[in-house]
Amino acid sequence: MAGRKQFDGEVVLDAAMVQFWRDGYADTSVDDLSRATGLNRSSLYSSLGDKESLYLRCLDRYATRYGDRYDQALSGAAEEPLRAVRAFFDVTLRRIADPGLPDGCLIAQTAMAIPALTPAIAERAVRALDTQRARLRAALTAAKLPAREADDFAVHLAAVNQSMAVMSRAGASRRQLRAIVDVSLGALAQALHRNRGPRP
User: Fold this and answer.
1) Contact assessment for residue 88 and residue 161, using Cβ atoms and an 8 Å cutoff
2) pLDDT tens string 1-14
3) Rounded Cα gap, residues 111 and 62, in angstroms
4) Cα atoms in the 13 Å half-sphere on the side-chain side of 33
5) In which element (H, E) is residue 42 found?
6) Residue 136 in contact with residue 47, Cβ under 8 Å?
7) What's the average model confidence in pLDDT over 31-41?
8) How far apart are CA 177 and CA 171, in angstroms?
């Protein structure tokens, strides 16, 4: 429509997501979002809703974007579970190493702030964490781990993945993060060996 400012909604959501990711929900103001997206306050509210609504959209966008990559990494777990889980962690390590993105993880950051967040945002963060555990559990079940071990390793690997995001914000080196992954994969290899025997 003539005279109406046009913008790319995908680009705007990405800019808002990075702003929230960098500074967190509480420390991001509407003015911050306006500067990050290039939209004035009125356009933000009319196009994307209030701050909470926008944050929820950004959480969903983040969870979908990286969730698809995690799913792809784990898709070969039935045949090569260790390689699949390493690929899963590689998604996180590549994100951490990307100089164009903030350190850490938007989901982990949100989870740590749950006591100060609205119930809707808290519920969305918990749901994202549950989804992460579920995708790992499904992959480990496909790798023929018994249900109890698949559950336990899913919880452990999801926790390791989130902790790496937190540690990266505290300055952990890539070598240190790789060492964390290697320890977890070593434990998983032992469990797979007990249940399936050594893999070629």
Assistant:
1) yes
2) 343 455 678 899 99
3) 14
4) 30
5) helix 41-48
6) no
7) 92
8) 10
φ/ψ of 73, rounded to 5, equals -60, -40
Encode pLDDT of 59-73 as tens digits: 999 999 999 999 999
Secondary element (H or E) of residue 198 = none
Residue position matching structure tokens 């937190």: 166
Alpha-carbon distance of 73 to 87, in angstroms, equals: 5
Cα–Cα distance, 105 to 178 (Å, whole number):
17
Look at residues 108, 131, 106 and name the one whose alpha carbon lies nearest to residue 56. Answer: 106
C-alpha 7/C-alpha 41 separation (Å) is: 14
Q: Quote the radius of gyration of the chain (alpha carbons, Å).
A: 19
> Both tokens of residue 57?
């959209």
Residues 6+ apart with CB under 8 A from 98: none
The CA distance from 128 to 189, in Å, is: 27
Q: What percent of the chain has pLDDT over 70?
A: 94
- Provide the token pair at 164: 């790496």
CA distance 18 to 39: 15
Distance CA 148, CA 159 (A): 17
Tokens of 67: 């969730």
Choice between 169 and 23, residue whose per-residue pLDDT is larger: 23
Q: How far apart are CA 67 and CA 89, in angstroms?
A: 12
Amino acid at site 39: L
